[in-house]
Amino acid sequence: TLQEVANVMSAITNLLEEVQPISHASPTEAPSSPSSLQEYSK
Questions:
Q1: Choice between 1 and 30, residue whose per-residue pLDDT is larger
Q2: Which residue stretches belong to region Disordered (predicted)?
Q3: Does the model's pTM come out above 0.70?
Q4: How far apart are CA 29 and CA 42, in angstroms?
Q5: Which of 17, 14, 42 is nearest to 29 (CA)?
Q6: Which DSSP symbol is given to 26?
Q7: 32 burial class (0-12, 13-18, 19+ CB within 10 angstroms)?
Q8: Which of 3, 6, 38, 41 has fewest C-beta within 10 Å?
Q9: How far is CA 2 from CA 5, 6, 12, in A?
Q10: What is the CA radius of gyration of the chain?
Q11: What confidence tens digit (pLDDT) does each residue in 2-40 have?
């Protein structure tokens, strides 16, 4: 379901934020950053 997809995206985002916290301050990693994943999942 769409809800399950949203849950998976949320979990992936949380993992990326824990593993790559520096990505928030690195413009070169924007395409794969947690913030872009959050925007894509909306």
A1: 1
A2: 20-42
A3: no
A4: 20
A5: 17
A6: -
A7: exposed
A8: 3
A9: 5, 6, 15
A10: 11
A11: 999 899 998 888 887 777 655 555 555 545 555 555 555
- Which residue is it, tokens 């925007």? 39
| 2: its two tokens | 């769409």
Amino acid at 35: S
> CA 23 to CA 2: how far, in whole Å?
27
- Alpha-carbon distance values, 21 to 8, 18, 36 (Å): 19, 6, 14
Pick the closest to residue 42 from 1, 5, 11 (CA basis): 5
